[in-house]
Amino acid sequence: KVEEATQILHINHGETQITSSPKKFSGYFHFYRKHKDKFDRASKKYQLFTLYQIRNKRMTWRTLLTLLSVRNSKRLAAGLRGR
């Protein structure tokens, strides 16, 4: 685990966020590559799952099962309900 926060999430603040800007994937991917050695296994899964979501890219079953975690399954279920 990292002693200091590597990112701060601001939910519903109404300003431009990395996940809604035109350069969202590039910025998030740069963040992941820069800090991935500091993440634990669950955090890596969460970050990679987020990268798939940002790109709106379909996952193979194998990838989905690899990235599946409690946090990601909740996000996946919420996304399916929202469709």
Structure explained in plain terms:
There is one protein chain. The chain is mainly alpha-helical and 83 residues long. The protein has a domain at 24-81. It is 55% helix and 0% strand. The chain has 4 helices and no strands. The protein has helices at 24-35, 41-55, 61-67, 70-81. Helix 1 (24-35) runs antiparallel to helix 2 (41-55). It is globular and about 35 Å long. It starts with 23 loop residues before the first helix and ends with a helix. The model has no long low-confidence stretch (mean pLDDT 81).
SSE layout:
Blueprint: H1 24-35, H2 41-55, H3 61-67, H4 70-81
Rg computed from alpha carbons, rounded to a whole number of angstroms: 13 Å
Which percent range fits the helix content? 55-70%
Which parts are unreliable, with pLDDT below 50 for 5 consecutive residues or more?
Answer: none
Question: Main β-sheet, in a few words?
Answer: none
Structural class: mainly alpha
Number of helices: 4
- Distance from first to last alpha carbon: 35 Å
Number of strands: 0
Mean pLDDT: 81
Approximate shape: globular
The ordered H/E elements are HHHH
As a percent range, the share of strand residues is under 5%
In short:
With 83 residues, the chain is an all-alpha fold. The chain has a domain at 24-81. The protein has helices at residues 24-35, 41-55, 61-67, 70-81.
